[in-house]
Design brief:
alpha+beta; Thiol Ester Dehydrase, Chain A; 5-stranded antiparallel sheet; 3 helices; 5 strands; about 25% helix; about 30% strand; binds coenzyme A
């Protein structure tokens, strides 16, 4: 399989926060944006492998800045690393200032998707070749996050998490 770049999977969704999508503070409701981030990440994973993909795990979501009613936000999702059948996708959410158009990062979500065949059996995906400095950083730390996710889901023994253990040695 020919390796692909993270850029090849880039998926961009831009939207505006409307009444009915907010919490009592008039900021975008968290569950609403999570669903959209999951969709964008799923499309990015599909673009990388051109197979059916399913969400295996939502590894981490950091809500750093609220997105207000009327705010315009953009989700940018890209595959950061692929393994055998699984892919890590990072979805960054940016809010843009109406007057200055300055973009501030509001949310970061890290997902694991798995490529499956029509019977739901995991299937192989292409390798990934990072290009930018950020893509290299995310690629290099992805195995730690995979091991942590597998430990938390009870699928890996902490003693087997070589990459995580190396952090403390
Ligand atoms: C995700 C799923 C396909 C994994 O199937 P499985 O039989 O457990 O397969 P495996 O144990 O071989 O895991 C497949 C890959 O997923 C990875 N994986 C599984 N669970 C994971 C988790 N919690 N975190 C990170 N990676 C995980 C495995 O490490 C493996 O990666 P690799 O092939 O790249 O090495 C299966 O559990 C499933 O279908 N879950 C339901 C998915 C779903 O309905 N999602 C919501 C709607 S899309």
């Amino acid at each position: 399989m020919t390796p692909k770049t993270p850029q090849a999977s880039l998926t961009i969704l831009t939207d505006i926060v409307l009444p009915g999508e907010t919490n009592p503070l008039d900021n975008l409701f968290g569950g609403d944006i999570l669903a959209r981030m999951d969709r964008a990440s799923s499309i990015a994973a599909r673009r990388h492998c051109r197979e059916i993909v399913v969400t295996a795990s939502v590894n981490h979501v950091a809500f750093n800045k609220a997105i207000p009613l009327g705010g315009v936000y953009t989700i940018e999702a890209k595959v950061s690393r692929s393994f055998f059948s699984s892919m890590e996708i990072i979805a960054d959410v940016w809010v843009e200032d109406r007057k200055t158009s300055e973009r501030i990062k509001a949310i970061e979500g890290i997902y694991t998707f798995v490529a499956v065949d029509v019977n739901g059996k995991p299937t192989r995906v292409p390798e990934i070749t990072p290009e930018t400095e950020l893509e290299h950083q995310r690629f290099n730390s992805a195995l730690r996050r995979k091991q942590l996710s597998l430990i938390l889901s009870g699928k890996m023994k902490p003693a087997d998490a070589t990459e995580l253990k190396a952090l403390f040695e």
